[in-house]
């Protein structure tokens, strides 16, 4: 009896500790293709760390973004090359990838989001020709071009002489009702709003959200308070790459269509710490339990972390991750500013249970996994790291089947 009660929790610990990550990276100066790499961690007595188990090079020169299907069985890789591509791959049981189809797109796509229940995808094109494009997905797993929208972005710009000479569409995201797709535009200080036609998947433009001049909206997330369910306001949290702020807006659904945004709060992505010069906020996401919003800070290393080489006493410089707790009225309470484990955390993902965060540090070619307290939202001890990942700069990290 005693053996059984002891073995059960042990098995649980082991199964929660083994995991696989999928990481995309750009080509390096010496390669013509970027990479999709599967990283595997298995704990236990014989731990060999976070190892690269598979490498796939089907996604062209500049894999910039990964989107997993809702069942986790396929991954769509977005290639930022010119032309760009949408490479659809099957995720095999062992974590390796098998290409199903490859479709050319307008140049420079940096993010994408499925819409219409996973039957279509919208892409954000940073440039050289800024714009938005959409595709439908056939039952034979091929993307069919639907719309290329570049004219509305052709003459947009804003105040920053370096980064805002032209529009730079940076992300595609869908609202909680699935009726609207938003595209933060770093170069134009706008968040473009499109209505989705549920039967044709066509996008049509609505009045955009105007951001603060010079702020550079990069990515955004929708959020709805869990309580009270009866009177649930929808909020939009926008992370700005140039001003290093997160703005919170209350969203109103207009009749017959369109969205209105009322600013309710704005915080620094460094919380109470002064934002260093040159900082460039990166990613934003909501924790799986809906209780926290997290963002990353790049190009402004405030931290040091131990060198992974035990013979090397020189600490590594590190950028940061910040956590806030949103209130039911959309205000953001600072929780923690902590090391990302390396330079340039362009992307990070929480495991499905929120107990770990995996960070893609673009400037350090590293992927670092930290423990996270689901109750307080605080990021803690380093679990494991992989160095020397990617061909030339890791761009996106996802948890496979977990
Ligand atoms: C590319 O090749 C050059 C010459 O062999 C070498 O010095 C450099 O370190 C290589 N760069 C990378 C990223 O491997
Ligand atoms: C530990 O795992 C490595 C890699 O799989 C293997 O080569 C080695 O033999 C294992 N060591 C033990 C003691 O099992
Ligand atoms: C997929 O398409 C892109 C863009 O045309 C190209 O660069 C890449 O090589 C293609 N991948 C394969 C495996 O053909
Ligand atoms: C969405 O897609 C899933 C899986 O393809 C399907 O089971 C479900 O019925 C669809 N829902 C709607 C509303 O179309
Ligand atoms: C997939 O379906 C599309 C449209 O139905 C068709 O044009 C295309 O040739 C098909 N591709 C393959 C590989 O069968
Ligand atoms: C959009 O442009 C790409 C790249 O030129 C092209 O392959 C695709 O067919 C175009 N889509 C539409 C809907 O015309
Ligand atoms: C962009 O501006 C140029 C010059 O003013 C004008 O000729 C062109 O029509 C504009 N394009 C769009 C799509 O508005
Ligand atoms: C969606 O497109 C169809 C076909 O063009 C059209 O009949 C319908 O009115 C559109 N729906 C909306 C809500 O615009
Ligand atoms: C519902 O939300 C609105 C808008 O935030 C607020 O004005 C109103 O007081 C709320 N009603 C209740 C019953 O909480
Ligand atoms: C020790 O680590 C630092 C920081 O990464 C690095 O610059 C240095 O080259 C390393 N020294 C040795 C001897 O490997």
Automatic annotation (TrEMBL):
Top-rank lineage group of the source organism: Eukaryota
Membrane-spanning residues: none
Alphabetically ordered keywords of this record: Signal
GO molecular function: 6-phosphogluconolactonase activity
Record's signal peptide: 1-18
Family statement: Belongs to the cycloisomerase 2 family.
Protein name: Lactonase, 7-bladed beta-propeller-domain-containing protein
Organism: Ampelomyces quisqualis
Organism lineage: Eukaryota, Fungi, Dikarya, Ascomycota, Pezizomycotina
């Amino acid at each position: 009896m005693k053996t059984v009660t002891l073995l059960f929790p042990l098995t649980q610990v082991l199964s929660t500790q083994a995991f696989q990550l999928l990481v995309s990276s750009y080509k390096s100066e010496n390669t013509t293709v970027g990479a999709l790499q599967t990283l595997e961690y298995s704990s236990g007595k014989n731990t060999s760390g976070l190892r690269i188990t598979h490498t796939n090079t089907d996604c062209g020169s500049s894999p910039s973004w990964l989107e997993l299907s809702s069942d986790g069985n396929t991954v769509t890789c977005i290639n930022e090359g010119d032309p760009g591509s949408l490479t659809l791959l099957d995720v095999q049981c062992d974590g390796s990838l098998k290409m199903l189809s490859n479709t050319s797109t307008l140049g420079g796509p940096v993010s994408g989001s499925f819409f219409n229940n996973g039957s279509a995808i919208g892409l954000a094109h940073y440039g050289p020709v800024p714009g938005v494009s959409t595709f439908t997905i056939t039952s034979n797993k091929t993307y069919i071009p639907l719309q290329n929208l570049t004219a509305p972005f052709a003459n947009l710009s804003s105040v920053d002489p370096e980064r805002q000479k032209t529009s730079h569409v940076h992300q595609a995201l869908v609202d909680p009702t699935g009726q609207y797709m938003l595209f933060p535009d770093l170069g134009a200080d706008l968040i473009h709003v499109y209505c989705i036609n549920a039967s044709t998947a066509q996008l049509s433009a609505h009045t955009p959200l105007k951001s603060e001049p010079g702020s550079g909206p990069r990515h955004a997330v929708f959020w709805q308070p869990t309580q009270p369910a009866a009177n649930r306001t929808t909020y939009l949290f926008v992370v700005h790459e140039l001003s290093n702020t997160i703005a919170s807006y209350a969203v109103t659904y207009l009749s017959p269509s369109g969205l209105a945004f009322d600013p309710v709060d704005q915080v620094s992505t460094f919380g109470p710490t002064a934002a260093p010069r040159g900082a460039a906020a990166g990613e934003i996401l909501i924790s799986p339990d809906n209780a926290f919003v997290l963002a990353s800070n790049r190009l402004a290393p405030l931290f040091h972390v131990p060198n992974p080489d035990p013979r090397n006493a020189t600490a590594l410089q590190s950028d940061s991750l910040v956590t806030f707790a949103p209130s039911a009225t959309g205000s953001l309470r600072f929780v923690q500013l902590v090391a990302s484990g390396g330079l340039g955390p362009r992307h990070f993902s929480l495991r499905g249970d929120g107990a770990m965060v995996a960070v893609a540090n673009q400037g350090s070619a590293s992927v670092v996994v930290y423990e996270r307290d689901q109750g307080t939202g605080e990021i803690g001890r380093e679990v494991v790291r992989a160095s020397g990942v990617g061909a030339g700069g890791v761009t996106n990290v996802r948890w496979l089947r977990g």
